[in-house]
Amino acid sequence: MTPSAPRPTSPQPRRNTGVPASFHDRAAALLARISAFTIAADDRISDPVAAADVAAAVREARTPAPAGLVLTVDDAIDFGHRWYAALTSDAYLQIHRRFAEQQFGRWTAAMLTAFGAPVLDPHRRLGPPGDLPAPRGIGYELAYVHKLPAAALGTCVALLSDLAAEYTPGASRATRTAVVGAFASGFGEGLQERVRDEQTALTSAFLHLNPATGREDGPAARRFRAAVADTVTAVLALDEHGGILEANTTAQNLLGATLAALRGRTLAELAMCADDAEQITRAAEALRTAGADLPGAAQAHVEFRITSATHPGARWLTATLGRAGGTQRGYSVVLEDVTFLRGLERGIDIEPSTGLLTEQAFTAQTARILTESRDRIALLTIRLSGWSHLDHVLPQELRAGLLSQLHTRIRAAHDPVRHRQLVGRRGDEVLVLLYDLTDWSTVIHLVKQLSDWLRDPVHLDAHQIRLHPRIGVAQARPADTLDDLLRRARRALHDPAHARVPWIHVDPVTQPATGDDRHRVELLAELTSVLEAGTLGVDYQPICTPAGALAAVWPQPYWLSGTGARRELAEIAELAEHTGLLAAALPHVLATAARDTTRWTAAGRVAPAVLLGLPGATVHDDALLDTLTAQAADSGLPVGCLHLAIPARALTGAPAVLRRLRELPTGPAGIRLALTEVLDDHVPIEAFTTVPWAMIGLTAATVTALTTTPAGTTPLVAALTTIRAFGAQALTDVTEGRPPHRGFDLHHAHGTITADLVHTLLSAPGTRA
């Protein structure tokens, strides 16, 4: 028996002739799709051969770079340039362009590695060897360390998507999503932590660094580090003399120096510009000497420029200084790098040649400030008289230099502890917005200081130019815009008679006075309205002979407030002189006195002399003297009736106005001159001896001092003899309750009288000198 062949233990595959060919095609397509699936390694496979086959399949499936695409360091650097340029077009990065190539190239290489296409760097062009950062770490560093805003995340995600599509087109969608998602997650985490830490630094570390500062449980420097070492805000601790004690890591990086190099130095020493150093010193001194008028959390905001070896070129920093809290003495400082913003402003917002904000920039920043707060904000409008003429005759560089010096003087008057300011230009006007005011005395003090400093001539090369500016001041009120502030200031600045008012103040009266300074500001506002309405009243102080006859009158302007209260211009004489309202009021006073004099002389009576006071610097205002001279000639005043009373302190030295004063008595109006307050604080020798004075006055206090000397009354006799030697009459005050001093030709009577009473006195027999 022939043995049969062995039978198979399992069914053998065989072609079934009844299966259609279409089923074979579908099966082949299905197998092809299955082979394209991502193959993952299975840890349960123990066969080495099978494990090697699976690993090879995994590598082949995950290799995104197609044949012929080889990525190099140049590819990473090129895309890094693109990444850096896209970010810096909308945000500021504290990475110098010189170092950005390497940093962003390294980050690009790290992202390509995460996408599955590592970049080899044999020559270390992307930095020292080592592990590349993870996508999550890159996002965190950009948001936390380099302070990119939240809006930059969209830019970064779009760029990274382009990177994957252009350089690793074979990367799976899952891989791309995972890598970009990790970057975005790190960015969000860094942004959240940065916001939280900055808020902590500003609320806990700045000014009152930590509750621990009030306890003596360790050195202040240690407590300072504990409070701010891990924050991203640059914070300094200064001693009571302004020397740096501590600086966190961010501050050290910002200043480009180690803590050892910074200790003992002051911010003023770090500033590269003398003007910036002076401003920092002034701010620290103001904080140090600040009294009870400033709150305990008073701050000073200054801006300065620095240079360092680690950051080429000049950089702009802002510093917010405040007194340290608790028992710690000295100051705390928060620094911020605003170089990028200032760089933009220099090309867009700030005129490089003058340093002034452009009209558009000033308008935009003022609108933002007014939107945030309208409390304690004021606008100064400085109009340069004759600027249109100077604009035509001066070369461009001299015009820019003139405005630059004006800006420098305004900055020098800035008190960073009591207010913040913007300085811009609008046509022929220079605008100064004062905000965050601590009190209204700041405005008064600043106007006085500017009025003094801006009177000094500006020296440019061989030229000496007098600015003759006029100032308007307006206080912001609810719902105000910049146009509203300018409209109120310009209302007072506008003068159809060639705009001769040199210093003007206009201010709304919206709230009751809360202090003397606020009350004075409101009185100035009332006076502005009175001058516009032409309702300024004038009473007269009689000037009599020893026999009691009326020889002259001294006009005393006043007005009635809305409540009917009488307001004397003398109440705000000093401030009115500095702001220019006094110069604006003098033509009104002279016009009223001229009308009264015409009425007094209508019945054939001889009018008394009119002594019009020119206190302070008003005598140096050529335009005002022109106006008064023309008024005296055209008003019908008798020749020699008008006397200009000038205080001696206004004529110290050898002022240019002396020549004009000598010519006034011989002019058409025959204006005579009176020198007052002689021997009080000043003795203007040249003015005293070269100007033809009709009257020379001594105050009652000076007379008392001259009569209570060891030599008795001899000094007073000598003074009176000197006055009469110059052909002048001796004038003095009268103290209430005391008889007039003997030896004087004229004396001020106590109190004031109305024009009608003057008319009555002139009508009575024996009452006219």
Automatic annotation (TrEMBL):
<dbReference type="Pfam" id="PF00563">
    <property type="entry name" value="EAL"/>
</dbReference>
<dbReference type="InterPro" id="IPR001633">
    <property type="entry name" value="EAL_dom"/>
</dbReference>
<dbReference type="InterPro" id="IPR035965">
    <property type="entry name" value="PAS-like_dom_sf"/>
</dbReference>
<dbReference type="InterPro" id="IPR000160">
    <property type="entry name" value="GGDEF_dom"/>
</dbReference>
<feature type="domain" description="GGDEF">
    <location>
        <begin position="375"/>
        <end position="508"/>
    </location>
</feature>
<dbReference type="InterPro" id="IPR029787">
    <property type="entry name" value="Nucleotide_cyclase"/>
</dbReference>
<feature type="compositionally biased region" description="Pro residues">
    <location>
        <begin position="1"/>
        <end position="11"/>
    </location>
</feature>
<dbReference type="InterPro" id="IPR052155">
    <property type="entry name" value="Biofilm_reg_signaling"/>
</dbReference>
<protein>
    <submittedName>
        <fullName>EAL domain-containing protein</fullName>
    </submittedName>
</protein>
<feature type="domain" description="EAL">
    <location>
        <begin position="520"/>
        <end position="769"/>
    </location>
</feature>
<dbReference type="Pfam" id="PF00989">
    <property type="entry name" value="PAS"/>
</dbReference>
<dbReference type="GO" id="GO:0006355">
    <property type="term" value="P:regulation of DNA-templated transcription"/>
</dbReference>
<dbReference type="Pfam" id="PF00990">
    <property type="entry name" value="GGDEF"/>
</dbReference>
<feature type="domain" description="PAS">
    <location>
        <begin position="220"/>
        <end position="291"/>
    </location>
</feature>
<dbReference type="InterPro" id="IPR035919">
    <property type="entry name" value="EAL_sf"/>
</dbReference>
<feature type="region of interest" description="Disordered">
    <location>
        <begin position="1"/>
        <end position="20"/>
    </location>
</feature>
<dbReference type="InterPro" id="IPR043128">
    <property type="entry name" value="Rev_trsase/Diguanyl_cyclase"/>
</dbReference>
<dbReference type="InterPro" id="IPR013767">
    <property type="entry name" value="PAS_fold"/>
</dbReference>
<dbReference type="InterPro" id="IPR000014">
    <property type="entry name" value="PAS"/>
</dbReference>
